[in-house]
Amino acid sequence: MTLLTATDLRLSFGPTKALDGASLTVHAGEVLALMGPSGSGKSTLLHCLAGILRAESGTVTFDGRELAAMTDAARSELRRTAFGFVFQFGQLVPELTCLENVALPLRLSGTGRRAAHAEAASWLERLEVADLAGKRPGQVSGGQGQRVAVARALVTRPRVVFADEPTGALDSLNGERVMQLLTTAARDTGAAVVLVTHEARVAAYSDREAIVRDGRVREQEFAR
Ligand SMILES: Nc1ncnc2c1ncn2[C@@H]1O[C@H](COP(=O)(O)OP(=O)(O)OP(=O)(O)O)[C@@H](O)[C@H]1O
């Protein structure tokens, strides 16, 4: 089932054509890796798909709704409820404990403190970092922080998780483990994952690879 579609996206930053007619389809529940050379437009495409950036032309449709036609409030609501995000670093709130960080998206959606904390604790356990619940992000390692970030991205049971170089700051062992945990949890909950990476061993966890070159999606391959 088609979940998210980008059609003929174009977006320039000054003279740089970051997207130059990019089209892509994301199917429900699949893990899709966006690969390609540095500067080819992968992050820009991810941000347009997630409704963070708006293309100058072209359309992005999620579940039959065109993002650009939605009000800002509706788009924010969609990002909060249907989308999860994992970035390379810096996405955890430093003043909050790991448990509070994971509970935050639920609290913002109106879930009570006790229920949000219970759900967050179960996600920390799933990501094998239950022992970090009371620690602040500054007190945990990079790999542990990314596990907490994955828990936070999945706690609302989103339809899509957008991950931009989620293992980019980790060594290969930690990176592989984070990818295993992310893809297993996403498959368990039925979330699709759109993943930007330049590492083949990270892309190996995907169902499908799309190659971005010069602001376009050149190939979409079924990896395995
Ligand atoms: N905010 C911005 N302002 C100016 N130029 C930008 C901006 N964002 C992206 N670009 C430019 O647009 C092009 C595409 O960038 P993008 O980050 O999407 O590429 P990428 O494929 O994700 O690269 P990398 O693999 O190095 O992260 C690059 O030439 C980049 O320098």
From TrEMBL:
SMART domains the record matches: AAA
Keyword Nucleotide-binding attributed: yes
Q: Name one Pfam family in it.
A: ABC_tran
**UniProt keyword terms in alphabetical order:** ATP-binding, Nucleotide-binding, Transport
Record-linked InterPro entries: AAA+_ATPase, ABC_transporter-like_ATP-bd, ABC_transpr_LolD-like, MacB-like_ATP-bd, P-loop_NTPase
Q: Where is the signal peptide?
A: none
Residue ranges of the ABC transporter domain?
A: 4-223
Transmembrane segments annotated in the record for this chain: none
A GO molecular function assigned to this protein is:
ATP hydrolysis activity
GO cellular component terms listed in the entry, alphabetical order: plasma membrane
UniProt protein name: ABC transport system ATP-binding protein
